[in-house]
Amino acid sequence: MAGFAQASKVPPEADSGSPQGKLYHIACKTWFTAGGAAMPLSFKFEDDSGELRTVRDLTVKYTEEKNYSGIPCREFVCESIIGGFLREFRLIFYCESCLWVMLI
Questions:
Q1: What's the total number of domains in the chain?
Q2: What pLDDT, on a 0 to 100 scale, did the predictor assign at position 5?
Q3: What whole-number distance in Å separates Cα of residue 80 and Cα of residue 59?
């Protein structure tokens, strides 16, 4: 049985600091593969004017494991049309708390 240090692929000293950008909490529809990898399919968030927005047809450009302030997470760099414009953004999945956020 693997211990905690063996289960985490990111070494504890490889801290990425804190996430940079405008943070939005999101409700994310996610597909988990048989191997346990998360893949975001669509999500909803409240924009700056208070309107609830739904984002579908997002493209994941790449993903990587991060350690923000010592908290292991998976970062997805994505693009999709938001508010009529093609936007690049990051979705961050905090594995331990199952929390999703978007950074623009």
A1: 1
A2: 47
A3: 6
Tokens 């990587």 sit on residue = 64
Distance CA 44, CA 29 (A): 9
Check residue 9 and report its DSSP letter. Answer: S
Cα-flanking dihedrals φ and ψ of residue 87, to 5°? Answer: -120, 145
- Whether 4 is covered by a domain: the verdict is no
Instruction: Report H helices in the chain.
Output: 4-7
Which structural domain, as residue segments, surrounds residue 42? 24-103
Neighbours of 39 (CB within 10 A): 11
User: What's the pTM?
Assistant: 0.80
Residues 6+ apart with CB under 8 A from 1: none
CB 45 within 8 A of CB 53: yes
Q: What is the pLDDT of residues 26-60, one digit of tens each?
A: 999 999 999 988 999 999 999 999 999 999 999 99
Q: What is the pLDDT of residue 14?
A: 58
Whether residue 91 lies inside any domain: the answer is yes
